[in-house]
Amino acid sequence: MPSISLAERSTPATVVILGTGGTIAGTSARPGDNVGYTAAQRSVQDLLAAVPALAAPGAPGIEAEQLAQLDSKDMDHATWLALAQRVQQLLARPEVSGVVITHGTDTLEETAWWLHSVLAAPKPVVLVAAMRPATALAADGPQNLLDAVTVAATPGVAGVLAVLAGQVFGATGLRKAHTYRTQAFTAGDGGPIAVLEEGQLRQFRAWPQGPGRALDRLPARPQDWPWVEIVSSHAGARGDGVRALLAAGVRGLVVASTGNGTVHRELEAALASAQAAGVPVWRATRCADGVLIGAAAGPAAALSPWQARVALMLSLLD
Ligand code: SIN
Question: From the candidates 14, 20, 23, 79, which is the catalytic residue?
Fold first, then answer.
């Protein structure tokens, strides 16, 4: 696979950066406090100002928009819809080479899977985040943002990607795997698609292409999207939670199963009743790595429970 850098780009490019919040935009009262901070405080323009290389000769043209400003634990379907619609509009502009989305790390893998599932992305759509706030002594956000823009401006790159700590991931297999380290993300057995080294992109595998489900097929109001919940199998699991969800009108269930798709017998009995009542149940694994294989393999075999929730919700709209 070829190696390419921002400086070698032959055509002028515009990269649009959409701010949505997260730790990358977080601030702490005490400089250097990496945990006692508030996410989503700095504007996307402020984040750009911390990366002088993006204003240097040879850098791509940059446009910045604040699409949202939230801690990604509070991410919601309305923001997802607005984000996907805006990205789709921007990708249609010929001069836009790619879109960068600043995001929190906590639900980044879910937003990546959402965008991968609903967008045809012939150009790069790059989620970027940071584990340390903008006020940290050694903030990781500015380097991650520079790397993300490099990827978004590189000809030939496509698909929904995540760029953190010098690694470029696709949505498949993507997981936040560490609570604190700056190298917090993994992509399971597949590993990163590429790495960035001093602005050089070294690619190992093909760029991902999602199914490109038309956004206009989604109900306009997110509150009309089918309600899908995740239940977890564990020692002492009970079926009462599933029965309460059925009574409340849940439309689909994902079970975060143990190991290779096994489920506690109490929970399994309740899930069988749900299926008999017409509520689909998809199995994903609660293991951090690996996919469901053999008889347990189904549509969510390679997805985290949180990504499987999105996939089941979308399948209920087909
Ligand atoms: C968030 O997800 O918005 C806060 C945590 C983080 O970005 O690391």
Answer: 23
